């Protein structure tokens, strides 16, 4: 898939940063209410799927982010396909993005296949970037 719009183009189209941020949340993600959560989300937005030029958060690959009182982070995620060429590396990429955040003690990443990922799990911004209107 080829990216047809970037973040700046979408922000201009939808009216600014606040509107972009609202559209950048995938519909089915479960986020905990912890002070580290926004920092973790920002870190996840820096990881891009190697085959689809969209970050893994907006692509809808992150199903759950949980942080306990000790700073242990649990991430449940999937990939677009079990045949994804980075199935072994992706958990390490996620851990590597989250570990440097001050206050994080440990990071556990689980890859799950249920529910199966499909394009309806993408944030609206991801759909706009890929010119997909579902």
Major sheet: arrangement of strands? 1-2-3-4
Q: Could you name the CATH topology?
A: GMP Synthetase, Chain A, domain 3
Radius of gyration: 15 Å
Count of individual beta strands: 4
User: Residue-averaged pLDDT, rounded?
Assistant: 87
State the helix count. 5
Mind explaining what this structure looks like?
By secondary structure, the chain is an alpha/beta fold. It has one domain: Fe-S cluster assembly (FSCA) (GMP Synthetase, Chain A, domain 3). It has 5 helices and 4 strands. Strands 1-2-3-4 form a 4-stranded mixed β-sheet, with helices on one face. The longest helix has 9 residues, at 90-98. It starts with 6 loop residues before the first helix and ends in a 5-residue tail after the last helix. The model has no long low-confidence stretch (mean pLDDT 87).
């Amino acid at each position: 898939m080829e990216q047809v719009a970037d973040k700046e183009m979408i922000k201009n189209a939808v009216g600014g940063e606040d509107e972009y941020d609202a559209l950048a949340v995938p519909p089915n993600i479960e986020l905990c209410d912890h002070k580290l959560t926004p920092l973790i989300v920002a870190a996840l937005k820096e990881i891009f799927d190697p085959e689809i030029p969209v970050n893994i958060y907006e692509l809808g690959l992150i199903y759950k982010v949980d942080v306990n009182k000790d700073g242990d982070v649990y991430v449940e995620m999937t990939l677009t396909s079990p045949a994804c060429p980075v199935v072994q590396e992706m958990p390490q990429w996620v851990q590597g993005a989250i570990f440097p955040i001050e206050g994080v003690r440990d990071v556990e990443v689980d890859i799950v296949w249920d529910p199966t990922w499909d394009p309806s799990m993408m944030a609206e911004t991801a759909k706009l970037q890929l010119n997909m209107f579902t």
